[in-house]
Amino acid sequence: ANVSSIYDFVEYTWTPGASMNFDSSQVDELTIPISWQDVNPTAPSNTSVNTPMYGAKPNALTDAATDLNSLASPWPSLVAPIGGITRALNPQDAVNNGAVNFDAGGGNTFWDNTVNSIWSAYPAGGMAYLPISYNSGLYVGYGQATGTTMNFYAAPSTSATLEASISKPTTADVWGTAGNLAPGGASTLTLELGRALGVSILRGTLPAASPASTPTQPRCAPSDWQNFYGGSQTNGGETLVSSLSGSVDWFAAEMHKYAYAPTAGINGLAYGFADDDECNIFVSDLGIPYLAGNQMNLTLNPF
User: Fold this and answer.
1) 2 φ/ψ angles, rounded to the nearest 5 degrees
2) Do the strands 162-167 and 139-146 form a parallel or antiparallel pair, or are they unpaired?
3) β-strands 29-30, 85-89: how paired?
4) What does the alpha-carbon distance between residue 303 and residue 290 come to, in Å, rounded to a whole number?
5) pLDDT for res 82
6) Which residues of 271-280 are buried (b: 16+ CB within 10 A; e: fewer)?
7) Is the Cβ–Cβ distance between 252 and 229 less than 8 Å?
8) pLDDT digits 0-9 by tens, 156-192
């Protein structure tokens, strides 16, 4: 219902005497480019900024809309002019709210071919196993598919302990990393493995070109976001590859491209979808220790 309104907001969580956390709502849409920083107003002017800027860069909306319009259908349909102001909708929200007909024919089948390719690449009894990490990479499950189920084992062998079984996800499951990718009441392993599988599909790293040597998914090195969304074929992950438009969540790619979060020198940290914090490097939150007298400065950047 909110697809016909122009708005954005910053959410905050305050733990009295301990910390203040901020994050933006831009995971649902890119509308008003907002940035924010923690400031100590009593410090000398040259040291008053306690944190770098977070949020969306100036002109992020205009630049993202230009990029999406340069891609093949259906990506330009996410650029929605409402009341004379343009915004970019998250594909999941666009589909769920009926704002745009994202899939050809309206059947919500966008990811079906990708999922079918993954299931075909790691067949039961074959040499290739799909390695998915969970619990921040401490453990790895090795998957092989049989029918509509992918079984994950504790080692790349069907004689190893069976850790979890994930039913083949639908396109709707992939968009929301939900349904078969996050089944209610399932074991922790199934939940973690399913979520990591969905995240890897959205980032465009699956199916791998060489299934027999697939790196552990999702890849979690500090700068690996630049290798998502076809990044290995682009300039540091910052140039879109239109030929990949059928197998990559380009809305999420745009969120990272125009994010303003240079934590530890790494730009592009943001949420493009609900579980985009997988690997603990996709943070749009600004968490700061509580310091009496400090203030948070919010900036509404040019569209």
Assistant:
1) -85, 5
2) unpaired
3) antiparallel
4) 31
5) 65
6) bbbbbbbbbe
7) yes
8) 999 999 999 999 999 989 988 889 998 766 677 888 8
